[in-house]
Design a protein that fits this description.
This protein is mostly helical and 111 residues long. It contains 4 helices and 2 strands. The radius of gyration is 17 Å and the shape is globular.
Length: 111
């Protein structure tokens, strides 16, 4: 077990840690301003996430097929940042009844 942990930690590169640190720093600095802007949004505002596989987050995909399952509402936002953003905002402002759409498509790029 210890060997696996050491191997994992040694595999993490300095650039990866730098990216994580910068992302955390941006979040800490930007979140207070963002939080204030969400409180000013109209009730029922719609948020659209467009992007590639990172946005897609493998949402609604059954393991044995690439087709979307629109009945699986547990994963309609995916397993990545779209889910984290939507769940955080919805939990902070339930009275606003915000609507979120994940339209990320794995393999596509936004230009």
């Amino acid at each position: 077990m210890k060997k696996k942990l050491v191997k994992f930690v040694s595999a993490i590169s300095f650039p990866s840690l730098t990216v994580l640190l910068v992302a955390a720093l941006v979040f800490v600095l930007v979140y207070p301003a963002m939080k204030d802007s969400f409180s000013k949004k109209e009730k029922g505002s719609v948020f659209l996430f467009i992007g590639d596989s990172i946005t897609d987050g493998n949402w609604g995909v059954k393991s044995n097929t690439s087709k979307r399952s629109y009945k699986d509402l547990n994963h309609i936002y995916g397993h990545g940042y779209v889910f984290l953003c939507a769940s955080e905002i919805m939990s902070q402002y339930p009275e606003k009844e915000f609507v979120f759409h994940n339209r990320g498509i794995s393999g596509n790029t936004v230009r």
